[in-house]
Amino acid sequence: MFRKLLLALAAVCLMTGSAVAADAFPNRPITIVVPFAAGGETDLVARMLADGMSKELKQVMVVQNIVGASGVAGISAVTGAKPDGYTLGVTPSAPLAMHPHMRKVPYTLDSFDFVGRILKAPYIVMVAKTAPWNTLDDMLRDMKTNPNTFFFASSGVGSVP
User: Fold this and answer.
1) pLDDT surpasses 50 at 99
2) Where are the alpha helices (DSSP H) in 28-71?
3) At 6, is the secondary structure helix, strand, or coil?
């Protein structure tokens, strides 16, 4: 009798232990990796996403900025994370679509499960009101007519702009 009671108690303890181990997701903070410095467009979008997800999931969302190698360091951190849903990455297309064609990177597109697009940001060309052009064609024609007199800046080689 005592032995049966002990076995029943052990069975109840085992069932309780497995129920505790199978807590509902998410049961701890979720990290969103941004492969660029804080304050940029990608970071701001990730922080807005984190705020909304935190409210919806009732869980802390941590935005972690991992900078270096034009986004490759942060993207690599996402591919190296345990695939348990607690590490997400937010990035523009350049580190995924352009960098693999420019240099050796430790990932491919197949390294990821894409969840979805969170932002569509069109790029625009603008000039000061005092500029001599009224259209993009006017500006391009002037640049072709007067080469070596115009300069531009970008976020860097391999960036979308």
Assistant:
1) yes
2) 41-57
3) helix
